[in-house]
Amino acid sequence: MPLSQSVEGCLEANIGKAGLSQAALDRTLARLQPRIESLRDDHASGALPLLRVPEWRDDIDAARSALAALTKEARTLVFFGTGGSSLGGQTLAQLGGWGIPGDDGNGGQRDRPRTRFYDNLDPRTLERALANLDLAATRFVVTSKSGNTPETLVQAIAAIEAVRAAGLGPRIPELFLGLTEPRSGAATNGLRDLCEALSIPTLPHEPKIGGRFAGLTNVGLLPALARGLDVEALRDGARSVVKALLEARAPQDFAPAVGAAIAIGLAKERGIKVSVMLPYSDRLARFSAWYVQLWGESLGKNGEGTTPVAALGPVDQHSQLQLYLDGAPQHFITVVRENCAGSGPRVAADLAKVAHAEYLAGRAAGDLVAAQQKAIPEALLAAGRPVRTIDLERLDERSLGALLMHFMLETILAGHLLGVDPFDQPAVESGKIITRRYLGA
């Protein structure tokens, strides 16, 4: 496994009354046995395609070919989509340096089109973006599982109209790529109809995998490929977690089951209902945002669920740690660490002395972060606050694939403990219905 998890900092024996007792943890884990068995059955039957995605390879070739055709002679690649149609892709793209100032991701990134994500519909932002883009050298990927997401349709139609207004109408089929569900029965799919009417090529979105669980499908593959990532390694990392599921003799042998039992056990037994994701890497900042949607939208139903919070170390040691260490005892912290000791620039001894920071002399930037990654869990433990650590020997495609699959399965198992369906989002749908009513639909 490319990652290791420790929950010792969440147990009553180590942090006192805010921790979960071993007996409570064992009871909660026992409740997961039937769901783990059903997940194995789903893997064998293919009933839950998410578990089979790590084995897929044909869709990689299709995504790679589509992207190569789309980006020929392009300088900018724009991704339109919202929520799960974007956050998974952003998470993967960031591993390749996207969204990190000064990071070109890898040696070949300067030869690739610039990558941009527009996931939040803001009329001013969209108007200015389309006005300032060199549309002849810009390509657009439009993602919507249902094809009916209004924000994404507005983005797509506005971009198409901008292209037409620029006299590039005949080039629309080569400037756009759609990603949406295949046609099914009488169900409407606005994006697919739009693409077909304009001869825009499309890739299929797997119908049985919802957006927030789709990061390892072609929804995430396209941004990952755009940043030059090894997508086969991403899937291999995810496959290692599925393999652990199939081989686990009991729930306590499977890390996502232990994580789910800890998170829900702390909520039910100790009233700890805020789940903070705190990775120590700029390349995992959007992973935290992806986690917030995954956990919140999957579990916040029927009066159940806990509140996910996105954080980032070391910066949020300065902006949030005071609350976690000394505020209301309601936070469960997950610290994701990579082995960064010895990496980065080194501190000049003469300048460290001038700055009264002799303890930093000769140290690498990674040495400070590595020390913080150890110190903060220790401080939380000493304060009696639940803290889990997840260690990555190296943050790369394989470990990120494993991390994504770990939390998708942890979320599914947490849904079983809460008695909710982790795959639907009825409250979101009701909001869409009311929005359409205001627009006269």
Q: Averaging pLDDT over every residue, what do you get? A: 96
E-strand count: 10
Ranges where pLDDT stays below 50 over 5 or more residues in a row are none
Number of domains: 2
CATH level 4 superfamily of the largest domain: Glucose-6-phosphate isomerase like protein, domain 1
Secondary structure category:
alpha/beta
Please state roughly what percent of the residues sit in beta strands, choosing from under 5%, 5-15%, 15-25%, 25-35%, 35-45% or over 45%: 5-15%
CATH-defined architecture of the largest domain = 3-Layer(aba) Sandwich
User: Measured on Cα atoms, how large is the radius of gyration?
Assistant: 23 Å
Would you summarize the structure shown here?
The protein has 441 residues and is of the alpha/beta class. The chain has two domains: 222 residues, Glucose-6-phosphate isomerase like protein, domain 1 (Rossmann fold, 3-Layer(aba) Sandwich); 177 residues, Rossmann fold.
Q: Which terms summarize this structure?
A:
about 450 residues, single chain, five-stranded parallel sheet, about 50% helix, alpha/beta, Rossmann fold
How does this structure look, described?
By secondary structure, the protein is an alpha/beta fold. It has two domains: 3-30 and 233-426, Glucose-6-phosphate isomerase like protein, domain 1 (Rossmann fold); 53-229, Rossmann fold, CATH 3.40.50. The chain has 19 helices and ten strands.
